[in-house]
Design brief:
The protein has 423 residues and is of the alpha+beta class. The protein is 22% helix and 49% strand. A hairpin with a 4-residue loop joins strand 4 and strand 5.
Length: 423
């Protein structure tokens, strides 16, 4: 009986253990199934995240690609040597050396932002300035509106004054191209029209300008307000012609107070004689210019003329002209050029001196200068140019010349070597 009781108890224990084992097995199987489902769910979520990230990355890449297409970066640089004779100067590098970068961004199909920065030597040091910073809007197929800091449209090569590759000289003639440090705030309209092979561009600008000029060691700050500029350019086959008219109110300030005081005193005496005034900042100025280019791919001829006139001042109305002729021989182009500058109202100052001999200083407003030179341009590679140039600057006729360098000299020679590049 005792053995049977023990057997029954062991059987009950076995049955309990078996039940527990079966329950545990079912529970583990259920846990495994849930775990597997959880893993599959996590894998699905992970795949979904990867797909989302892949889609997002693709969108980001597309946006970056679109941004790259909308942003354009261009640059230019020049490095050169200058030697002037009879001026007791060593070889200089700063006058011809500069680096510029231009950024343009297409906001949309009609709107563009343009910024150009420039580093160059000016008044004994190098500085970085913003030449261009404007917003452009393509109103119609032919009409463009711009507002901001824009290059002054005074010359044939106004848009490329700092880009040496764009013109044949080492530097444009100083007799005409003397406003190269100018910043301006303008609003302008550009209207383009084509009729057959004739292309026209008309530009109307309003705004103001600020410039600095150095004359015989003196720095003059020039400010032009209420400026209105109207230009028309025609292009027909090998010909390009341009005419420009400018009106502005001019203010001059001198870095030397003694000179300013002297000019003010001089101005009072000239006014007392009823001859107008001396200081240009008391006056309005009219600046008119015209230019022409003929280029058939082998022969190039460039010429420009200009005049600037004050409405009341006897300070100095200027007239200038330059002409260049070049002939291409494969990658080489030898050229010759000449330029001349003079004040056209010297008789007015002589009349004032006759009335009051103390006004002899008025003769310092007389300007005479004539330059003749030759050079050669070598297009080494696309966008990489070397120029070698020699010029004789003279014809001062007792004046200080256009840059105040004459000072008792009959003439001097200037030799230049420069390398220009665009990228």
């Amino acid at each position: 009986m005792a053995r049977q009781k023990i057997g029954k108890r062991l059987l009950l224990v076995f049955i309990n253990v078996l039940c527990i084992a079966l329950i545990s097995t079912f529970s583990l199987a259920e846990d495994a199934q849930q775990l597997e489902q959880r893993v599959k769910s996590l894998e699905h979520e992970l795949k979904t995240l990867k797909d989302k990230n892949r889609s997002r990355d693709k969108k980001v890449n597309v946006r970056f690609a679109e941004m790259e297409q909308r942003i354009k970066i261009h640059g230019f640089a020049s490095a050169g040597l200058t030697k002037e004779t009879k001026l007791d100067k060593a070889v200089e590098t700063q006058d011809l050396s500069r680096v510029g970068v231009r950024f343009s961004f297409d906001v949309n199909e009609k709107t563009e932002v343009v910024v150009q920065t420039l580093s160059k030597h000016s008044f004994d040091n190098y500085s970085i300035r913003t030449d261009w910073a404007y917003l452009s809007y393509q109103a119609t197929r032919n009409l463009t509106l711009r507002a901001g800091r824009i290059s002054l449209p005074f010359y044939l090569f106004s848009d490329y004054l700092q880009v040496g590759v764009a013109y044949p000289w080492v530097k444009p003639p100083a007799e005409l191209y003397f406003l190269d440090s100018t910043s301006s705030e303008l609003f302008d309209l550009l209207y383009r029209k084509s009729v057959g092979d004739l292309n026209t561009l008309t530009q109307l600008c309003i705004g103001r300008m600020v410039d600095q000029q150095e004359f015989s060691g003196m720095v003059i700050d020039i400010q032009g307000d209420d400026m209105v500029v109207l230009n028309t350019q025609l292009t027909y086959h090998n010909w390009t012609a341009r005419v420009g008219l400018t009106q502005a109110s001019v203010t001059n300030e001198y870095d030397n107070s003694a000179i300013g005081t002297m000019l003010s005193s001089l101005d009072d005496r000239v006014l007392a004689l009823g001859l107008g005034n001396v200081e240009a900042y008391r006056d309005k100025i009219a600046y008119n210019n015209a230019g022409i280019i003929w280029d058939n791919g082998q022969t190039m001829v460039i010429s420009e003329v200009y005049e600037s006139r004050f409405s009341e001042s006897i300070a100095g109305n200027l007239e200038g002209i330059h002409i260049l002729a070049g002939y291409r021989l494969d990658d080489w182009m030898p050229y010759i050029y000449g330029a001349k500058l003079r004040t056209s109202n010297d008789d007015d100052r002589e009349e004032a001196i006759e009335l009051d001999s103390s006004l002899l200083v008025l003769r310092t407003f007389n300007v005479r200068q004539a330059t003749a030179g030759l050079g050669i341009r070598w297009d080494i590679l696309t966008g990489f140019v070397m120029k070698l140039q020699a010029e004789r600057v003279g014809g001062f006729e007792g004046t200080l010349g256009s840059l105040g360098k004459a000072a008792g000299r009959d003439h001097y020679w200037e030799y230049n070597l420069v390398f220009d590049v665009v990228f």
